[in-house]
Amino acid sequence: MVVLASLFFMKAMPLDMPRAEAYLVTEPSGKMRLEDRYDELDIWTSHAVLGRWLDDSGRLFTVARLHEVAPEKTSSLTRSKYASETVTPDKKEFGVRDLAISKLSPFPLPEKPHSPRMPIRGFKEVLYFHGTNTTSVVAAFLPEENPYWYLAVWDILPEDDFEAALENFEEKFLGEWDEIVKRDLRSERKVVAPPKKNRKKRIVLSEKELLRRDAALSVTNYPSWNVTDAREFIILDNLKKDSSFVSTLTNELGLMRAKYAETVPSPIDGSNVLAVARIFRTRGEYLDALEVNDVEGMEWSAAYWSSKRRELVAYLPDEGAAKLLKTIRHEAFHQYLAYASSMIPASPWFNEGYAQYFEEGPDGPSFVDPCDLAEMADTNLPAIFMMDYDEFYAGTDMERRLKYRLALSVAYFIEKGAPEIAREPFKNLKRDYMNSLLKNRDMRKATSDAFGSTENFKRFIAEWKKFWQAM
């Protein structure tokens, strides 16, 4: 879409990943796995839309390819089930085409489409669906020697002249379509329509490989974006070509994910999990992604884990890579634990404690300031273990920093603390916590089950206090 971007638009808008809903599945063999299910329309939209661009005045341009039949009534399903059931439409199925257009149009479709006043070269047919509405140009078109209908939606401003916009659309967009479609047909989005009688006979990839493909496709038509593919993760970025950050991040994520799994093992089979990371070049793009992902209160941040979209999102700050790597190690642990717990929320003492622990690298911090920690053993510390996230994040900045510090001190103590912690009754504390969380879906009960008894909990507090007193 190089020509399109250069003619109309200043800013590429990376496509959203569909929102996922987690299900914990136990197979007859006893093996547990996470099964992500999606709204069928959400998946269809993510496949149909080739790209979105925004100009400086806020005009949004969207281009889609209608190569899969849009769902009339949506259900919740896996990517694999969607891939096995989706159907490629025939270009003569006009009802199917109009259904797809109605899903992407910003307003209800008119009863009949309009044709251009003059035929446009390179197209078998061009149809306008704006009716009497003059807020958007909505056009479907069937290029010559192409099996699919395409759709363009151009949202214009109230002060724009609609007739002039139509003329501009035909001259600058449709007039350059030959170059645009060549790029599209070279991309991995190319789908060869099967014979009509065998429409549903498709080779279906695993959930992991379907997610890998769809993550890459979300930036396929943006020349400034790059894809770095590894075994257990995929990185999308629009950083400068000479940036070494992605190479560094690729090595880091490989090391860190292995260390997360070693330190906090999960009974869930994670072989089908793929971690997605999206790295923006600018803070403005990052803030736009916060809004798209419905993430509030993180405007100050440089990275976050979007559990709905299943991706770790970050931007490279002016101060460089070192600080961002620390933040990404933190957020990547949240990402790992979310998959390891089948998206069941883990206690903040456990989740935030270990996320901080791993900020410095796979071996954790070499030192944690012990100042005043031991004094909190009988007051602040016990309460931390039973807090949910509303309680953990509540209060003043100073109160939140104290809670984070205590959570880190617990993780540090478990991993590097007194010899007592490595023996009974705390030897399997992390394992027991994860097993209970998956079984009961209750973070507080998981904490209680991990300690086993009130006596064990008191002993843990006493050992923690003794450790920090000796520091």
Strand and helix map with partners:
Blueprint: H1 2-8, E1 11-12, E2 20-26, E3 32-39, H2 40-48, E4 49-54, E5 60-65, E6 76-77, H3 79-85, H4 94-104, E7 123-128, E8 136-143, E9 150-155, H5 162-173, H6 177-186, H7 207-217, E10 226-229, E11 233-237, H8 245-263, E12 275-280, H9 283-292, E13 303-306, E14 311-315, H10 321-340, H11 348-357, H12 380-384, H13 389-393, H14 397-416, H15 429-440, H16 443-451, H17 454-470
Parallel strand pairs: 11-12, 12-14
Antiparallel strand pairs: 1-4, 2-3, 3-6, 4-5, 5-9, 7-8, 8-9, 10-11, 13-14
Briefly characterize the structure.
The chain is built from 17 helices and 14 strands.
How would you describe the overall organization of this protein?
- By secondary structure, the chain is an alpha+beta fold.
- It folds into three domains: 2-207, no CATH class; 224-342, 3-Layer(aba) Sandwich (Glutaredoxin), CATH 3.40.30.160; 344-471, no CATH class.
- It is built from 17 helices and 14 strands.
- The strands form three sheets. The chain has a six-stranded antiparallel beta sheet.
- A hairpin with a 6-residue loop joins strand 8 and strand 9.
- Helix 10 runs antiparallel to helix 11 (348-357).
- Residues 1-7 and 185-200 have low confidence and may be disordered.
